[in-house]
Amino acid sequence: MSQEAWSSGGSRHEADDTSDKLYTPEDFAAYAARRETRDGGAGGREPMTYGDPLTDPLPGAVQPVQAPTAPTSPPPAYRPSTPPPAAPPPAYRPPVDPPVVAAAPPQPPAHALASPTTAPATDPEPDGDVRRFMSATDFLDRRDAEQEHGPATWGWRGTVRRWSGGLITPRMGPDELAYEVDRATIQRDFDGPRTIAFINPKGGAAKTTGVLAAGFTFGTVRGGGVVAWDNNETRGTLGIRGTRSTHRNTTRELLEDLERFTDVYQSRIGDLGAFVRSQGDAHFDVLASDERPDVTGTIRASDFDSVHKLLERFYRVILIDTGNNMRAENWLAAAGAADLLVVTSTVREDTGYSGLWMLDALQDAGYQDLKHKTVTVLSDPSANVDAKLAADLVDVYQQRTRGVYRVPYDPALVAGSVVPYAQLSANTRRQWLKACAGMAAAL
């Protein structure tokens, strides 16, 4: 913009040309005096104030109508300039005041007459603040809690659904619903690796069979991350009852080559595959005990600790098959390191007595809270068992442990060879699912 155009529109300065002028203090004082005179004095311009954006009303919002306030003091008395006449004129009639009608209070808008919506009560946060909305985590937790199981697939309910082509979808019955609950319990997340030791100092108490059946159940339901470890101090049978492998390495070879796993950043679970035996579709691994006939040494407590720490790095559930000598170092180390003890027994008086004697010995040795740290699995050794003896064993073990689970007799396990997981009866799988759900709940 040119100097003429600027001057024609009203210059900010009275001087025609200020580009090269040097101002003196007197000039600045005169300019300040003119500004002060134009703005009405020093207090003429009020400083800019800023409101609170959270509490102040929005611009253009309708403000509530307030009733007029009564004056706090009477108005000053009126004094006329001329005195009033002594008496009214003859024809004067005083005016009659109209009746005083109280002014009606202002009515609120129509939309304001509706009753306000009461906000739902909210729980205070731990720090005292009130939560005003549902968080994303709360939303997902509520959706997960409200999720229902699908339509029935078992029994007559499943038959009706299939015959109707899905037009009729009955809900699950109690047995099928309990089955789904047990699976969900086994699939629960743990905050670290968990160790379960199967114990009974008597041979033939179904410890090895129980470890393999539990490994199959945990492995298939959880989808892996399970290892069954034969912690026999000399030679056990877990390796020959599990699925064979292309190698014959056992715990003894793993101890001899343990240095390759000392570096936690370089060792891998794939390297451990040279010592464990995969069980295929059962989705768990087996670490066998020593199988060489020329070895005379035994597994010590320090050996157990080294192998146990290694397995905890690569597996979430560790199932330990123990030997029959509860005075052995590795047996005591397994009982001490276990998060849960599983007393296995058949429905026989001698094996039942052996398990109870072991619990007495552990309690006398100072093991605390055995009842809440132990469950019992009773297996039927034949198709026909003594019902009175079975009831007595269930009763006494319920007093000593947190739960007792009965497992039926299964002909597929009689041969004593590799456990045919696919040939296990539906009832055997169902009862082992219940037992493993009880173990998972105890963890």
From TrEMBL:
Biased composition of type Basic and acidic residues is found at 11-24
Query: Where is the stretch described as Disordered?
Result: 1-131
Which residue windows does the record flag with biased composition (Pro residues)? Answer: 71-98
Q: Where is the composition biased (Polar residues)?
A: 1-10
Biased region (Low complexity) positions are 99-122
Name of the protein in its database record: MinD-like ATPase involved in chromosome partitioning or flagellar assembly
Source organism of this protein record: Nocardioides endophyticus
